[in-house]
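User: Teach me something about this protein's shape.
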Amino acid sequence: MFCYKLPCGDFQTLTKMTETGITFDPPVYEQRYCAAIQVLEDVRWSKQIKKVVEFGCAEMRFFQLMRRIETIENIVLVDIDEPLLRKNSTSVDPLVSDYIRRREAPLSVQILQGSVADSSEELRDTDAVIALELIEHVYDDVLAKIPSNVFGFMQPKLVVFSTPNSDYNVIFTRFNPLLPNGFRHDDHKFEWTREEFKSWCLGIVEKYPNYMFSLMGVGDPPKDLESVGHVSQIAIFVRKDFLELQLENPLVTTPKLNEESTPYKLIHSVDYPFYVDTRTEKEKLWTEVQIELQRFKRIANSSENEQDSYQDAYKMPVTLLLDRLHHMGATKEVLLELLRENEIKTDEECVIIEDSDEESQWSDPYALSERLSQDVVLTDQEQGEECWDLNPVS
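Assistant: First, the predicted structure itself:
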């Protein structure tokens, strides 16, 4: 095991118990989603998480958060329920706003019908696996095959499992009895205590020693009842090479498919629009210089209008311009050379921006408009198109 803390720290949540029941703010399913997103965005490995497979994707709700991670380029959504997948397949399609403000990297999405227990060609080269509240819905024969498929065949860098914590059920039964099957949900095949979940995780890392795991949870217990733990328990498995540790066994370059596995069926696929920047680094820098000079002149003009006076030219300190272009690795020498090439006047310490200059001063208005389009602010109507239904799920 290893100790893992969420990159953004603990959630600000509220668990409230009244005479009639217990409530969680925000809902526990949202807390699970937020925890999983933080794990995917952890700077220790986020840049190397290009392909993510979510097992048990159901209504595609977690996808709506995951797709916003710019470094992810391939999302594979897998569920056994084909009618459910077909019903919700179009919910992964790009929105109008995705065409207005395009991603900076490609994103390919596939919806597949298949079992988490079966290996399939589409699962190769997976970097991260997410399975939230899934394992408690499968029978023992499927559960027994999950580790070999995920850790043996897929060999991802990162795996996140979550499942209900049955230790917490003593609180729920204060208000309502469990369902006739003895669990919280009528499709649950089991609900594990924290020790049972830990034992399952220990069995995985014993068989697949290239991994270590850490346990956490979401859905805090009420005050003075902390001994029951969290409503939902989470296991985070990380491959040792991403913890700067040596692998126990070499990775299998081309793992073999299980001959007994049923191939996955493609239900729907879509590619998201993204912005392809074909400019050279010098052209990119010049576009940013133009933006900063125009921004400086606009602010200066606004200030002058308040004073009811005008200037023929404005001087922007070179140090200020350099500070704003620091993220692009600009140096003073490169910047001054670029300004000279584009006939922008300078003195020893300032860039001279003439008030009479119009768009003709800027040599690449098309590139400039492309760059400015990245800063589009959506209208209220467009923002509304980005909303999606988030009803609690089991």
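Now, about its shape. The domain at 14-276 is CATH 3.40.50.150 (Rossmann fold). The chain is about 30% helix and 20% strand. If you'd like, I can walk through any region in more detail.
User: That's plenty for now, thanks!
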